[in-house]
Here is the input.
Amino acid sequence: MTNFVPRKTLSVLDAVAIIVGIVIGAGIFKTPSLIASNTQETGLYFLAWILGGAISLIGALCYAELATTYPHSGGDYHYLTRAYGRGVAFMFGWSRMSVIQPGSIALLAFVFGDYASQLLPPFFTPPLCAFLVIVLITLTNISGTREGKWTQNILTSATVIGLASVILAGVIFAPELPVLTDPVAKNPGASFGLAMVFVLLTFGGWNEAAYISAELKGGKRDMVRALLWGIGIITAIYLLAGWAYLKGLGFAGMGASEVVAADLMRKVAGGSGAILVSLLIAVAVLGTINGTIFTGARTNYAVGQDFGIFSFMGKWQGKNNTAVNALLFQGIIASLLVLLGTLTRKGFSTMVDYTAPMFWFFFLLTGISLFVLRFREPEVARPFQVPLYPLTPLLFCAACLYMLRASLLYTGIGAMLGVFVFLLGGLLLLVSYYLDRLKERNIPG
Here is the structure.
């Protein structure tokens, strides 16, 4: 079998554009108010964003080494299998299909619901909009319909236009407010750790960006430059957005807002401004939800092919060229999570609680795998090596451990349910192991 090597066709500018495009998404229209309510002062608010950029850069450098040393479409799944074996890979696959990916779909759906409900009659509440968008896009993917490139470009452009309009409205056109003396309402459950959970959720996606490192023309030097510029630009944009929200709404207003971008535009440009930005954000989130549903189902399909207990998801429908069972499984779990978020009355926050512990646990394991694979496979060529080893990956692992602790310590029923579902995966692993042994015994000769 031919071992294809990616061609080095990307410049630093190309890589920066890809990194910025992957990371900047729907979160910046929702999380600032939650971060404000948990930091409770402007200095800590901006510090949280700066720390988020630093942690993301350190993590991206670690992933760049893994991605260039072990290029594989499975990403984390492949690194974990190589470092720890099939048992850990099974638990990662199970967590991704039952916790991380459906939870991400549900939290994006709640962002869509919050903004879409601003445009629709009162009957269409945010939870109802969230549920309907999951059903609609899941059915669209099942039918085999694919967005064209122009459609995805329009959706991406909506994100950029929406964010740019919010920044301009807040920084240039909003009337001055005494933001430094305008404290947010006291939140008895506030914690800096929980604020960082929301910050790093908004920075999510940099681990995907690291996979382009093998295609950069200038090798590892350009990889570091691209990551520094890319994550630096993202951090600057997020700081500008935070400044715009603070200048336009004040710290208390931002902390109390459910739809912070729409509230800012309503204050600056009236009802028409709020409607316009709500429409732009709702359209942009549609693209993100579609991409998350599409890729999540592919992961489920891969796990279904690797493990017999999930074989029902490892079937591909040739007629529509899609994994129907994997999409249905994912859609059902995401819809149930919308119900959970509705019952807790904290929709988006509950979904962050649900996904965060497992997300950071496997991030930690991936960071440790860098040490394991360097020790176990020292002869393997490493096109890119993380700078300042072992300090850089140690810092990343420490950040992951802190975030894992924060996501367990400061979150509620969502986190407990996510951990329970993870532990249920351990039972399924034992069942899968037992079924595999039975199958081996029944194979003749």
In short: Residues 260-306 form the longest helix (47 residues).
